[in-house]
User: Fold this.
Amino acid sequence: MSTRGLKPAGRAIAILVIGAFFLFPLYWLVTMSFKPQDEWSPVGGKIYWLPGKWTVGNFTQALGISTPNTQFFSAAPVDASKPIVHSLLAAGGGTLLALLVGVFAAYGIARFRAGGKLLPFQILQLRMFPPIVVIIPLLIMFTYLHLVDTYWGLILVYGAVTFPFVVWLMRSFFAEVPREISEAAIVDGCTQWGAFFKAILPQVRGGLAATALFVFILNWSDFLIALVLTADKVVTAPVFLNSLQSAGAGQEYGPQAALGLVLVLPPAIFGLLIQRYLVRGLTFGAIKR
Amino acid sequence: MASIRLERLTKDFGGLVAVDDVSLTIPDGEFVALLGPSGCGKTTTMNMISGLERPTSGELWFDDRPMSRVPVGARNVGFVFQNYAIFTHMSVYDNLAFGLRVRRPRPPKPIVDEKVQRVAGVVGVEGLLERRAARLSVNDMQKVALGRSMIVEPSIFLLDEPFSNLDAAFRAYMRAELKRIQHEIGQTMVYVTHDQVEAMSMADRIAVMNLGVLQQFGSPLEIYERPANTFVAGFVGSTRINFLPADRVPVAGGANGVGARVTLGIRPEYTRIVAADSADATITAKVALVEPLGAKDVVHLTWDGHDVRTLGTPGVRPRVGANVGLAFDPAHVLFFDGDGEAVA
Assistant:
């Protein structure tokens, strides 16, 4: 075999190994979600690479369709549908808020150099320390403002935390659109706003879709902020997932895996819906003309 | 339709004076080219006419209306940009209709439709109306851009180097097309370009600018034959004009002339090669280099340390190194003073 033949083979092997490494957790999540309890929590540490007895019991249990038959299970009724709705509201609202504020800020910075040279970095600064640093002061503030354990509180925080991403991503997309596009619209009789909505925004919709998805995933998968700022009225899905524990089995890995799999769906569906714009959006910023 | 009058127009970008005290009157229906090297202020001048830039001082008039406070959209100007500024997310039809649809009140659909069809015919994109603008060739994009600015029937038509991104053949075609369209609609047009051939071939009059200052405003022939200064003389003309020390060249009014005549200018086409000992020879010089350009040769001569360019016929190509005479046409000899200003 020539070295020419070896190279593609080596490549294929490398791809397989790296792919297996990164996809293994997903594989384990999927298989575990279909295993009965004595397989996801086996006595004697036996490893089940595939479910021995396939079951959808984890799903029905996590989603509250059936009640667990184990006497050791926690007394609290289990129903993930409400946390999923709460998560959709909080993450979706936070995403909308971040986009609403961030898109305009990004356009102002990209086109009018609003706020001067340093503003983008000042905005990025919001992300330069871990969220845990501000979460306690935030909790105290929110207590005074009666925002703890409310949708609005979560939406506000999610919006603020992801706002810098929106600004930085959208800024580069806007910078790609020639200034003349908006000038042409204005000469034709548009206002600055009209030019933005009719001429500029449609040109960056790919970038907008990519940004929206990215920010939604961030908000959707937040655990820490929701854990601290909510109690029992608002429970997001990741917090709920963590609460799937029982006295008998400790962490309820099976139902947790099932719920985890369900939680992949909203961003995945969102992604599929906007896929048409996404590919362009993700490559858009890299093109230099 | 309107005339345009710039009255001591100045634009100062915080210390950088892009346009310096420019006064200019463009009569109604005239085709004027703003010509100059990049950075000369021609685009800024154009942007002040369109309203995209606001003058620091001075006033701009359309007919007898002062315009410097009128917002861009209300000036009723058509603008064609160098990079087309086509809305690639729309169809060609929607691009053309854009200017009409943002008007208030919005014209009814049949009127929009009729105007779009007509303009598409004028610029030659009738067959492409349903196509997405992103899928157009560069040439068609510029046609659409031209049509889009025409559809609102602007009183003034501004074009900022519209053809500089096009290939040479199509550029020549579009030049002729634009000239035809301008005749057809008889509109005042201001055309920014750094290409003197473009300016000469299309414009009724040319305004030559340099470093923010208007150098000369006149017909192409005036600009060419009677340049106001050495900048204009040097910028206009495809083979560069020869500048020689006036006191060393034995022509009437030169060596023995007035003291102010410091520089002599003679265009290569107003000189001809003669025998070195000919009585017609104004100077004798050595052939340094011959550049064949097809229809003619550019012959570089060395005279007194100066590179003197003349045009030769390909059939009688002089030998490099030979001594030849060069006869100047006395009617076309120009003189400039120490500051480079033309001297009569």
Observations:
- Chain B has a mean pLDDT of 88.
- Chain B has two domains: 4-235, 242-343.
- The first strand of chain B starts at residue 4 and ends at 13.
- The radius of gyration of chain B is 24 Å.
